[in-house]
């Protein structure tokens, strides 16, 4: 893999001020594939200055022109699909087909949606004798994780640019290469210097410096709830805007009368996608007692189709997890599930047979999970599904809402009407009704400790705008 031994600041690749670097490791075979600079607080400061200097002109650029440039960015991303997919597979370990369709494909759709929204959004509204102006917040500090490494970048940068903000991005340590590709795309799209800046580096160093920087007006963070709450505290103390997209423990509720086989199969696929490293994954499947054993049987059979293997090989559906820490964490949860009395009906702890090299885990399904168990409460971030039993709808609501999280979920019922009636009782930011499709315009974000704010579509754009009222 080729990598820039430089940071992207003010429209050029510049050496970092220090010499430290971060190794990028291929999780499928544990080889070091590249190294990138570990930016320091001084590098972050240089990037924030560049973003600040570029802000007035970018904020004053007509939305139609910003829309054109976002369209060019979308075209750049689309034209480099193959390279983006290969890069994400190499640094994250997701199967190549998933990298193409999801990791490279979704960002094209999201960038495209903001090209359109920049052109059509009403940045001004009338309210009685007032005109309300929606103005860009300013310089945005974006901090992203590794699990959907390009999507999470685009879901912050595209709306920020559409709003007229400028950006400094600190991507995850494990996946900096696709962030460098993204920076190349911003340059090729013709974005003015300083509008987008990239500082690779360690979270507690570069990430923290960005969150704490006094000239950053808004911090948009996606990652763990632990780090997110620290960032929220820093931003709160400085009275700056903050958006947090955090963890989840979402419920897939299968109501009596639903198509059980479909609900279970889609549910298993949802949890095992991206090796279970999806914050919105439906990691708890809730099934009525009458059909519980049938659902467990179906889930066991569905899980058998997910054989971990080389993500570059044709037909692989499940690659490794991202790194050794994550592998050990996931295995720790699987062991905990067994200790607490859950019944593993697929998988279990330890490396899959024949895959001792690489950060592989066994796709695991637990039956007889009860709501108080650790595996029913904590986010595992690996291919681990817990199946819980409920007696009636009130109990299903109680279990579904009974965690600190509230990011996503699903409801399956005999018809949409009963599924929607149930969905209204869920404390969560998104619910897919009877297998509803992903919508890149739908607001995405959490209730409770899953976060603050929303990404995607017009709601995502609103995060980057502040309001000024003029009275006549
Ligand atoms: P993480 O919180 O450790 O890291 C996320 C980002 O924050 C990285 O760029 C990291 O370098 C940076 N960071 C770490 N410490 C920091 C600090 N002290 N100050 C500033 N920045 C810091 O999380 P992770 O391990 O990369 O990602 C996995 C977690 O993220 C999971 O819990 C998952 O649920 C969550 N996640 C949530 C969403 C969402 O949209 N809600 C999306 C993806 C991941």
From the spread of the alpha carbons, the general shape counts as globular
- The figure for the number of domains is 2
Assign the CATH superfamily of the largest domain: Aldehyde Dehydrogenase, Chain A, domain 1
- Mean pLDDT value: 97
Number of helical segments?
15
Sheet with most strands: 7 strands, mixed
Kindly name the structural category: alpha/beta
Biggest sheet: strands side by side, in what order? Answer: 14-15-16-13-12-17-18
Could you name the CATH class of the largest domain? Alpha Beta
List the helices and strands and how they pair.
Layout: E1 7-9, E2 12-14, E3 21-26, E4 31-37, H1 41-60, H2 63-79, H3 81-92, H4 96-120, E5 124-127, E6 130-136, E7 139-143, H5 149-163, E8 166-170, H6 176-188, E9 196-198, H7 203-212, E10 218-222, H8 225-237, E11 241-245, E12 251-254, H9 260-272, E13 284-288, H10 292-303, H11 324-339, E14 343-346, E15 364-369, H12 374-377, E16 384-390, H13 393-400, E17 409-412, H14 416-423, E18 432-433, E19 451-452, H15 457-462, E20 465-471
Parallel strand pairs: 7-8, 7-10, 8-9, 10-11, 12-13, 12-17, 13-16, 15-16, 17-18
Antiparallel strand pairs: 1-2, 3-4, 5-6, 6-20, 11-19, 14-15
The chain binds nicotinamide-adenine-dinucleotide (NAD).
Nicotinamide-adenine-dinucleotide binds at residues 143-147, 170, 172-173, 203-204, 207-208, 211, 222-224, 227, 230-231, 245-248, 279, 379, 381, 407, 451.
């Amino acid at each position: 893999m080729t990598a820039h031994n430089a940071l992207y600041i003010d429209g050029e690749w510049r050496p970092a001020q220090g010499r430290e670097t971060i190794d990028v490791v291929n999780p499928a075979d544990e080889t070091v594939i590249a190294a990138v600079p570990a930016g320091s607080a001084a590098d972050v400061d240089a990037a924030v200055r560049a973003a600040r200097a570029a802000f007035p002109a970018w904020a004053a650029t007509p939305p139609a022109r910003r829309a054109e440039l976002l369209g060019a960015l979308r075209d750049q991303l689309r034209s480099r699909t193959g390279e983006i997919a290969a890069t994400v597979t190499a640094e994250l370990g997701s199967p190549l087909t998933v990298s193409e369709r999801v990791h490279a494909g979704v960002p094209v759709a999201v960038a495209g949606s903001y090209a359109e929204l920049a052109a059509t959004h009403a940045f001004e509204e009338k309210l009685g004798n007032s005109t309300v102006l929606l103005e860009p917040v300013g310089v945005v500090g974006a901090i992203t994780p590794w699990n959907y490494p390009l999507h999470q970048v685009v879901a912050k940068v595209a709306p920020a640019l559409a709003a007229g903000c400028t950006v400094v991005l600190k991507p995850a340590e494990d996946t900096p290469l696709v962030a460098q590709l993204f920076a190349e795309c911003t340059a090729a799209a013709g974005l003015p210097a300083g509008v987008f800046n990239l500082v690779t580096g360690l979270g507690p160093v570069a990430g923290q410096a960005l969150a704490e920087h006094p000239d950053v007006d808004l911090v948009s963070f996606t990652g763990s709830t632990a780090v997110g709450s620290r960032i929220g505290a820093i931003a709160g103390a400085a009275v700056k805007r903050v958006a947090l997209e955090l963890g989840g423990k979402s419920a897939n509720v299968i109501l009596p009368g639903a198509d059980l086989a479909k609900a279970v199969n889609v549910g298993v696929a949802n949890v095992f996608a991206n090796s279970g490293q999806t914050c919105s994954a439906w990691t708890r499947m809730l099934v009525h007692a009458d059909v519980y054993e049938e659902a467990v049987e179906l889930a066991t059979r569905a899980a058998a189709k997910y054989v971990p293997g080389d993500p570059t090989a044709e037909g692989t559906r499940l690659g490794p997890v991202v790194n050794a820490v994550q592998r050990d964490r996931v295995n720790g949860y699987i062991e905990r599930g067994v200790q607490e009395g859950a019944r593993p009906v697929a998988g279990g702890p330890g490396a899959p047979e024949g895959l001792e090299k690489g950060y592989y885990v066994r796709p695991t399904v637990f039956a007889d999970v009860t709501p108080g168990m650790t595996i029913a409460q904590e986010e595992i971030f690996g291919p681990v599904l817990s199946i819980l039993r409920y007696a009636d709808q009130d109990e299903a609501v109680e279990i579904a809402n009974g965690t600190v999280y509230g990011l996503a979920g699903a409801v399956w019922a005999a018809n949409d009407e009963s599924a929607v009636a149930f969905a209204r009782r869920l404390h969560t930011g998104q619910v897919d009704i009877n297998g509803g499709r992903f919508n890149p315009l739908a607001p995405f974000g959490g209730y409770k400790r899953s976060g603050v704010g929303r990404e995607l579509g017009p709601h995502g754009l609103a995060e980057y705008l502040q309001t000024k009222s003029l009275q006549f």
